[in-house]
Amino acid sequence: MELGSQSRWRGLLHPLNLAGLLTWCAVAFTLPYGDAPSQPWRWGCALVFLAAFLLATALPRASWQRATLLLVEAAAALALVRLAHPSGVAPALLVMLAAQVAASWPPRSAVVAVAALNLGMYLVLRGVNGHAGVVVLIFAGFQAFAMLTTHYARGAEQARDRLAQVNADLLATRALLADSSRDAERLRLSRELHDVAGHKLTALRLQLRALAGEAGAPPGLALCERLSAELLGDLRAVVQSLRDSDGLDIATALHALAAPLPRPRLHLLLDDNVQLHDTALAEAVLRCVQEALTNSARHGEAQVLHVALRQHQGLLLLDMHDDGQLRGELHEGNGLTGMRERVAEHGGRLQLQRNASGALHIQAEFAA
């Protein structure tokens, strides 16, 4: 089984889903009570509901496939309410459905959908139960509780994800700034050594050479002059090594950006010839990858984001795609527009397209 499928099916172990399974088991326990001829139909409706519920937990919340399965659950639940014993707990399936609707749709749409469900339950029970209105009101209270619980649980998850994104942003920025500060300090030290110590050593060597050339100079002066020349050469080598740098550690910053996020996982391919010395360019790359991570998690339900960074003919090439599937038409929102603006600021261009699997493929070129 692929990683994405495994992760989606692990969603079945979410506490709210486990509560739904327990609710279904409680309803199934009451199915033998009632008319014997309709018992196979009752089990059929219950199993259809369960199958649709299990499939829905493995699909993205806002997908049309999940919405279709919710409609199947609604039809199966209402049919079971009609076939089950009037004093049974079959309407509890609609409580499960209300929680799913609250997790999948905006609050207003969810309230309208659940109100339609309750109207359907009233119409189904009106001919077989003299207290259909009371039953609907009782289970409507349970539905409201389930919807509020799901709404706040979903809000807590979204707040956690936003906090993780902010924390990742801070970690990546800190890593990039720390690397930039180290490079700046190395450059400052190299300049100080070259301008101060190098200048004085050069003057000392010239003085020693002049003294060694005079008549009657001690023989040790020539050795001192030679040692000063070697020391000056060593100092120049140290200055050059301080100036030589492999650039900013963009890989560490990118991994720090993606590490706190639950998904997608970052798969980074960084060519050995990539060297970033410009902090502004490195930050632009960082923000582009950050936006790609956000899009992959929010719109594509992706599990892995593949990022490749290489340099070719004076250009820095950034290639990003994931294993998700983009829903709807490709539309540039504020995030992608900001990415395009960042690329343009560095004399580059941005290309957006769908790949063969339906995921968003982003290619950016920067003037390195």
TrEMBL record:
Molecular functions per Gene Ontology: phosphorelay sensor kinase activity; protein dimerization activity
Annotated ranges, domain Signal transduction histidine kinase subgroup 3 dimerisation and phosphoacceptor: 185-245
Gene3D superfamilies: 1.20.5.1930, Histidine kinase-like ATPase, C-terminal domain (3.30.565.10)
Keywords, comma-separated and alphabetical: Kinase, Membrane, Transferase, Transmembrane, Transmembrane helix, Two-component regulatory system
Record-linked CDD domains: HATPase_UhpB-NarQ-NarX-like (cd16917)
Ranges annotated as spanning the membrane: 12-34, 40-60, 67-85, 105-125, 132-153
GO CC terms, sorted: membrane
Protein name per its UniProtKB record: Two-component system sensor histidine kinase
Lineage of source species: Bacteria, Pseudomonadati, Pseudomonadota, Gammaproteobacteria, Lysobacterales
